[in-house]
Structure prediction request, 310 residues.
Amino acid sequence: MSAAAYVALKDLVRLRYRAQGFSYRPAQPVNSVLTGRKRSRLRGRGLDFDELRHYRPGDDVRNMDWRVTHRTRTPFVRVYTEERDRPVWVVVDQRLAMFFGSRHQMKSVGAAQTAALSAWRVIGVGDRVGALLFNDSSSKVYRPSRSPGALMNWLAELVNMNNQLVAGSKEPSRSSALPEALQTLSRYLTHDSLVIVISDFDGWDDQCLSTVKAIRQSNDLIAALITDPLERSLARADQLVVSDGAFQIQVESKQKAADARFSAKFDAQIERLGETLKRHEIPLISLTTESDISSQLLRQLGGAPVATTR
Prediction:
């Protein structure tokens, strides 16, 4: 199998040694796309007291403020700003729509690499990482763990999903699988997690937004958008053949009017997504199939020296 079309487990394991120099922490270098992101109020027993809030299922009872609890007759916990024991969830899109690429690799490959790099980075700094993997027909959930073995289990399933993608499938890609996956994830989340959604966001709709807004009430969320240059401009293709699996036609890609309409529609969709995410304070990382994913993450997430990141 071509490495540009499909991923192999050994390649995702090798990314462990490239998962350095970037961070998903709120405090970021000035050139990071996450600069200015608010510090999350995440669980921990650090030295910097942040606030009192009502007890929620799953809170560490060692953080209970018994004096306030006794006075108000309502359980309260003390919240600290230190980021310790932060669960991270990686949501990875492996639908048929992701099995597309005109340059360096498929979007599905880029998504798998982004997930592996992110997960190895999280494990490397001592946090827990889990995953929700989904395609057009199913989704699989792996709860956050610090165990490299647990990570290897879901990376193997990610490879399996990726290798099942076949061009010309008679079953079309389901845009509804994205809102369904986010809804599934919301049932596993409690609070104080970081969620990284890696997708082309085909199928983003009001239901997705509603679910994301609910998730954002108690968790952080980052969107990693995977695109291919041919999705923006047909003129990049010397010869374009479109097929539904049974029939195919050749499209004249040099028609300027058609290309302009095509580009405008794509740009408008991406702009709407970006504006919506920005309005709800959700950072957007834009990744492309044109070049190496690890280099893109380094560039967009600050590229800080390894010793200064966490």
